[in-house]
Amino acid sequence: MTINNAVMALAGFMIILSLTLGSSISPFMYSENFLWLTAFVGVNLFQSSFTGFCPAANIFKVLGLKSNSSSNCCS
After folding, report:
1. How confident is the model over 14-48, as pLDDT tens digits?
2. In the chain, which ranges are E strands?
3. CA gap 3, 75 in Å, rounded
């Protein structure tokens, strides 16, 4: 798995988790405040597309995942 794939997988998982925990129609609904996590993930993805700074990519790089040589995203 490359860093780019790991970042996309983590972002997708966090969005699905926060929507599941924050949606009022979910049987797992704990608090609407979990929807702030969805907003945080979206804003982080948006800013990293312009600045190139992605905390998750840095963490995955430290963990030893290889960067995707064909793409400059998140590496």
Report:
1. 999 998 888 878 777 788 888 899 999 999 999 99
2. none
3. 7
